[in-house]
Amino acid sequence: MVRFPAVAPIVFSVVVLLGLQFTVSSSSLAEINQDSTKSAAARNLKQGQEHPHEVHCSRERSRAARQIIEEYLMPFVKREKFQMSSLCKLHPDNDMFRDQEEHKIHVDINEWRCGYCKKSFRAEKFLDQHFDNRHYNLLNVSHNKCLADLCGALHCDFVINLKSQKTKCNPAAAARNRHLCESLADGCFPVNQGLSASQLHELFLHQFCDAHTCSEKKRPFPRGGLKQPNILYLATSILTLMLLPVLYLIVYLHRRDMRGKQELKRITKRTKPS
């Protein structure tokens, strides 16, 4: 019978211990890797919360474009009873911020309220930041729905007066803006859709596109727009209506007093001895 050396049990024990140590080390390494993965995921989630979604569309310039459309275009569209196609970039459905803007409540000069969650802010800019941080999911972020992209054609700078100093006219920029403007006219008011569309097409060119030139000094919106009520005129009218009864009363009392004096004089003359 073959006999094993006495050292065999010792070697066997060492191998078993090394195997157990390797198993423990592998388990620990797996746990470390798992913990690292969880930490990285948590860090990425935290970074995502610290850096909210960025929208590459200017809210301020979109607001200016919306104001221009409502004031200098829509009154004529409504007068013609023309229905703009949703494919027209000027259509209200193609405004990324429209729903949020409609949920702004201007309570007082120093108070703006969120129409979604009723939270109040002391300035509109803080409400805009609140929309960006808390209600981003309500934005209509579909492609080609940024009104600010149309500012070149709609003369947004003329309205919001971003340029404090007059700059020299750039023929290339003017030509580019005129091309965009004419493409809006063609897309929103096709001349083959009837008399109203043809008239609005001509009005749009005259109202917006003709001013995109460096050869002549033309101002945009020559046809005017929605007439806003004059606050001074309203105040004067209300004050006049309030003072009118008082004026009538003064005139009435004055005439009655004059008649009374004249009657008194006649009575006095009749009672004098001859």
Automatic annotation (TrEMBL):
Molecular function as annotated in GO: transcription cis-regulatory region binding
InterPro entries in the record: Znf_C2H2_type
Signal peptide positions on this chain: 1-25
Residue span, C2H2-type domain: 114-135
Keywords from the UniProt entry: Membrane, Signal, Transmembrane, Transmembrane helix
Membrane spanning stretches: 231-253
PANTHER family per UniProt: RE51073P, ZINC FINGER PROTEIN-RELATED
This protein's name: Uncharacterized protein LOC115749560 isoform X1
